[in-house]
Design goal:
CATH superfamily: HUPs
Largest sheet: 5 strands, parallel
CATH topology: Rossmann fold
CATH class: Alpha Beta
Distance between the termini: 41 Å
Length: 374
């Protein structure tokens, strides 16, 4: 077995199949962060001035409309804080939530409690459980580490659909470059690839996805470049500190912490904390902690100590495994059989990655030129 090589600056390693290191042992994720951070993140007065200008454009564009923007909410800290900032900035967003059947009770109460205090309207779209359950099973059977793709794709498709229907030109999102700068395609690729998702379902699933929200690469191109829909990452314009944000949300809105990144979803917690490490040797804490190191929020020694901690207690793991299997309507034995299949990746199936990555490069270029928001 090949020895794992770890970046000398962050904690990313060769469990990322495509990672590369320079002569000093620093990985491509760190180098890309350094190359992009100054134009992706505006701190201090520069950020305030730029955000104020964007907010004025949103208000002007939204005059005479019921809502001037959309904000997606999950019950997590980032999306809740974005909603809070929208209120502070005097915006009139429609809050949108996708219910995929896996919300924790705490996530639901966070959404209800905070939006009531902010006095924002909430639109909740409930996925057809029969279809969605079958799609999640299809991704498990495909044996790829992309098990969260079905939810992420549906969320984005829903936001596009509502923006088009209600003629809303701005979507406020919780992307924060300082903590989410790096992506690892071999760990999770197909969020925007309907060809890939549809193929996985046709090959491994039983249900026809007649109600599942979806979009193609060309749908996205149309919304971005023809309809001029804009995504605004508010957190890239302010001095955002997640710990401070959680304290503020707890005090001002009664929001409660749920225990880990994206753990507001029971399935996401189980997938990231058990399936990925157990089957694929992928620990997504590495990329999250590495972004923290790159942004200066934490030290490398702190990150290494965090990675030594167990995510699950044995009792909780057994309980969650039983819960997930029961909700997916399969036996523990069937679940273990699926887990025993050899790992595969999106490159093993038909996909639209060439078009997808081309569109990403176009966005990258336009963003550097200041035409696209951060």
């Amino acid at each position: 077995m090949n020895k794992i090589q770890v970046c000398t600056r962050c904690v990313m390693d060769t469990t990322d199949r495509d990672i590369v290191f320079n002569e000093k042992g620093i990985c491509n994720h760190c180098l890309e962060f350094d190359a992009n951070v100054d134009y992706r993140v505006l701190r201090g007065d520069k950020g305030k001035i730029a955000l104020k200008a964007i907010v004025e454009k949103i208000k002007v564009k939204g005059r005479g409309k019921e809502y001037d923007c959309i904000v997606g909410v999950s019950g997590g800290v980032d999306s809740t804080f974005v909603a809070y900032k929208c209120k502070q900035l005097g915006l009139r967003p429609l809050a949108v939530h996708l219910d995929n059947g896996w919300n924790s009770e705490l996530a639901v109460s966070n959404i209800e409690r905070t939006l009531k205090k902010l006095n924002f309207d909430l639109l909740t779209y409930v996925l057809d459980w029969r279809e969605f359950k079958d799609l999640q099973l299809s991704f498990l059977k495909a044996s790829t580490p992309d098990g969260e793709v079905p939810t992420d794709h549906a969320i984005f498709a829903l936001l596009l659909k509502i923006a088009k229907e209600k003629n809303i030109s701005y979507i406020m999102n919780g992307m924060n470059y300082l903590t989410e700068a790096s992506t690892v395609p071999s760990w999770s690729y197909g969020h925007g690839d309907w060809q890939y998702i549809n193929y996985i379902q046709k090959k491994f699933g039983k249900a026809k996805l007649s109600k599942y929200p979806h979009y193609t690469t060309w749908d996205l191109f149309y919304m971005l470049f023809v309809k001029r829909l804009k995504f605004v990452s508010i957190l890239n314009y302010i001095d955002y500190n997640k710990d401070e944000a959680m304290g503020l949300l707890e005090k001002e809105l009664g929001w409660q912490y749920y225990g880990g990144k994206h753990h507001e979803s029971t399935y996401t917690k189980f997938f990231q904390a058990f399936i990925l490490p157990f089957k694929f040797s992928i620990d997504k804490r590495k990329i999250h902690l590495s972004n923290g190191i790159q942004s200066g929020h934490i030290t490398r020694s702190f990150a290494l100590e965090e990675l030594k901690k167990s995510i699950y207690s044995e009792d909780q793991l057994v309980a969650d495994k039983e819960f997930v299997a029961k909700k997916l309507a399969i036996s523990i034995e069937k679940f273990e059989e699926i887990m025993s299949q050899p790992p595969k990746y999106y490159t093993d199936y038909p996909n639209s990655s060439k078009k997808y990555f081309l569109l990403k490069r176009v966005q990258y270029t336009l963003r550097k030129l200041g035409i696209f928001h951060r």
